[in-house]
Amino acid sequence: MSPPVSSDLGYVPPDGGWGWAVVFGASISVGFAYTFPKAFTIYFKELQAVYSISYSQIAWITSIMCATTYGGDFDLKPGIYTEWMNITSGWMTARLQWYGDTGAESSRRLCPISSILVNRYGSRPVVMFGGLLCGIGMVSAAFCTSIMQLYICVGFITGLGLALNLQPSVIMIGKYFLKRRPIANGLAMAGSPVMLCTLAPLNQFLFDSFGWRGSFLILGAILLNCCVAGALFRPIGPGTASVKTQVTKEGKGALKQEVTEDAMEISSPTHLPMENKTEEEEDRDCCEKINQYLDFSLFKHRGFLIYLIGNVLMFLGFFAPIIFLAPYAKHIGIDEYSAAFLLSILAIVDIVARPTTGIIANSKWVRPRIQYFFSFSIAFNGTCHLLCPLASSYTGLIVYSVFFGLAFGMVCAMLFETLMDLVGAARFTSAVGLVTIAECCTILLGPPIGGMLIDTFGDYKYMFVKCGLVMVLAGTFLFIMNYYNYRVLAKEEKERKAKEEDPKTVRTENEGRKNWIKETTQDGPELEPLREEQAGPKKEVNGISEV
Predict the structure, then answer these.
(1) pLDDT at position 465, please?
(2) Which 3 state secondary structure label does DSSP give 455?
(3) Nearest 5°: CA angle at 339, between 336 and 344?
(4) Can you tell me where the transmembrane regions are (predicted)?
């Protein structure tokens, strides 16, 4: 069970009231951030024909958008433990438990762009600015004359705008809710699959009615609704909290500096050693500042390395199938609306799969073995992709979309919970940051590699087979290595218990030695000098410890 929720915000969150308006705005922001890159694939076929480009070139648009969105913001909020899709009162929730401080210092540790801007300006202007960037990016894309311009407008500018919408939404919910935070976050996160159900058919309708350039203009106007969502994020909290925190930190810093200087003056009779220590302290401070953002000691953590390697490998095949699903359906002769509806089917199953996985993962039978369950879900996802080429009809693609949505929801529901299970709450924030940085590389490269296979062989099945093999390999790797890790941890635990028993034996030997000394002191004064020599060092040691 997770520890009870506590608040260090300096005020009592209302747990309702205007907070529900914040939840509504957050569902819009989160929905666009997670859904827009997937729904944009509806335009791939037309853009390929207009610019005469290959599948790998068109896939770079979504890859750049996803990498920018995830790389700029996917760490969620430092200081938060995210347990995706627990169930509270029958709602699909994303339960967030706070650990450590909740001040600006903790929210700055992973240093994403959105964290810096939120700490400087607040959530409301950041989300509104992100919505403005999304609108500008899509409106500018309507006038693009080359694929490189689309990379910049759609991939980078729109992706950055989506990144600025995601984290501030999660932060605002944490400020407005405490007891009802699981329900509030569940409703906000539910905006992603709900938005995908509607946005994919809407994109197809806009394309048929206005063409891709007109659709981009309308999508730019639709994305400006993120500004409206951001306007709902009314600031909350004590007005002097930040000032008091800053003054307190400055006072502590000044006191620490004075104590350090006094200690250096006492311990160094000359100025030369003092300067050497100052240089050493500067180097140490530099390393400490770096470690404030990312804890690189995690690379010595065996479980973290296993998770990192497995997930980096998994993301090579994680997004490409959902990006090329609608184009593949069109390629085998299915009409545009039916192809877009496949994404809606996937999203509907995803809505059901995430909370169901949360219930199963939290059960007493699966919880101790959640790493194995996560490995199975990845391998199951890859198996679905391996069987996709057998689906040559629309009915077969519907069946594939159902199982793909189930597997996709299972992986997403346990993606962060498994990392938390390995590294613990204290190191979770840095672990998420390091994993996200590494995953962005494979998120960026996965779809273009799949498009390159389509260009080379002229068939989509090789792309699905590649993604399936990669994910099956990642799931198998995680299963085997986690089994090995658990065996080693059990062995280390036995050794630790054995070491805990050793001091008892040492204590018994010490007591026997003391009794022997007491007996020998009764033999006469000839041992008195020896006792004085033994007592002298003890006094000196005690004197040093007292100083």
Answers:
(1) 93
(2) helix
(3) 125
(4) 17-36, 126-143, 149-171, 183-202, 214-233, 304-325, 337-360, 398-416, 428-450, 462-484
